[in-house]
Amino acid sequence: MPRLYKYWLKEFIKFFFIIQLIILVLFVFIDYLSRMERFLKSDISMLGAFNYVLMKLPFMFVQLTPAGILLATIVVFGIMNRNNELLAIRSSGINAYFLIKPAVCVALFFSLVMFFLGETLIPASMSKVFDIENNVIRKKHNMSVARKDIWIKSENRLIHINYYDPVQKSIAGVTITSLGENFRLESRIDAKKGYYIEGEWFFENIIEQIHAKDSMEYDVKTYKKKNIQLTFKPDDLGAVAKRSEEMSFSELRKYVKKVKEEGYDATTYEVDLYGKIAFPFICIIMVLTGAATGMRSFAKENLPVTIALGVVIAFMYWIMYGFCISLGYGSVLPPIISAWITNLFFFSLGTLYLMNSG
């Protein structure tokens, strides 16, 4: 490996981990202190609460890695620019773009690390985080998830929900069983789909079976649409339903296939599925953009302003990425397009920016 590569990598790794450490420490303290009131009202100990926050670190590390790579790349190239090291490299007959190769290799490495963490550590840690959130902090003991189905015990009712759409706030494949004395079955309601409108649940395509008194028979009724009073809200379901962060790529892919085979709309999870592949590639985009920014003449004169520009670029990416993902959730864009369009836009922009920075 050329000495220039070793030098660049050494500087990059140093600044990257300093930036990541600062951001993650700030996250831990801000998240811990901002939730203090909720911690005090729950049964969780202060040490348990701190452990709850720490378990989010793998997820936050992955989320913050692209921004850390961008800022570290800007700092390294900016310092080399300010110290006239880039000018010395050019004077030696070596193109400054020579240093892009180790930068891209580092970006590829971190892309693989992000994907690996998303497949292994993050699903396990976030599952534990949500478990503590629901059962210890929010104390929702009457709700549980089994193989991604939701079970709710509400008074004398046992409610089973086959699928919950967090974006549309709708439920599908609903079975409501009412029990009487000695756990005797009083009625059963099966509904194809349910919507939460103005504080009430409305269900479609309903079959209601009511046990007739002093008989073993059931009266069967059907409804196209009916309002049924239930004690839970969509936000309660969103808290307990298994989320994309709790599933690896392979697990989420199986879940999307299962939902489609059962006839439900899997758009929300399909967008997240493509996002699990698209998101790690942001590292390459951030390296190209960071290199182009650090090589600019204004970076030599005012490095703090250049770093601030890097923060703005990262912020713009997050806004556009979130907006496009929302369009995918709403079926305005196809899932694969909504997950990848921001990467394609910023990759093209970053490449052009780099080509005009020499």
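[next item in queue]
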Amino acid sequence: MLGLAGLLSCNAEQAAEDLSKKTTLQEPKPTSPPFPANVFSRMFPESPPFVPSTDEAREQAKKLGVKGGLLDALDGQPNGNNPDNPNMTEGVTFIGQFLDHDLTLALKAPLLEQTQPGQTTNFRTVKFDLDSVYGGGPDGSPELYDTSSGDIKFRVEAIPGSEQVSKKRAGRFDLPRDQKNNAILGDSRNDENVVISQFHLAMLKFHNAVVDRLRADSGQANRSTRDIFEETRRQVQWHYQWIILNEYLPLTIGQNRVDEILQNGPRFYRLQDSQFRNSNGDLLIPVEFAVGAYRSAIRKFVPLIS
């Protein structure tokens, strides 16, 4: 499961870190996958490696990412060749990061150790259902939720004094945090930087706004708190999936490719193939996508994150 993109973005000490120990996730770390045998798969299991797995090959791979190396676009230099992307902004990269965190979470998969995909647990569901936001739900992750209004909303925190520095004196908000400033959320990776942190916050506030909208609807007045929560989660997921299908994918892979897949289905990731399902018939994500193609691609949408 050695990802070239991972090698190029960290040193050996960082690559060997165990996320299960590093995470600041305030809810208990997942101890079981969302369904049994939720592991990774391979898209091309019969394909030989590009080069033999030797120390020399690993050293050569590391050199690709060094300053002045093959992957250095020489930004800001006269001989640089890294034109801007006219179709998207820097924020698309962080949306891609958020999407990745909604699909995969391998708590222990050191890059510099040989790891078998079929023995590596994925603690995320293989679908865009925002389990990285909702966690285990109100019952499994009660620390994420605020029930003081009588409905099930997410906790968010107002930033003290923000009205004094905001346009029209609008208040600003942050993720809920503990006394050590660790974010209390469904996936600690969504507090890695300000942009993805605020995107996660936007999803929390969107959920809360949908709860208010449903509760204000006279047709919903007699529904239970739990029913309102489930309907809210369903609507939030639908909006999220609509954005992926109608905005994110056309921007990143092109509308023609999206239309082709919708009409003809995936070319290589064929849902009926047994290699992409476990013994229970649940879908699995191939490492060629999760560790290689997708993680590498989201870093190339724009030339430079300023």
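[queue empty]
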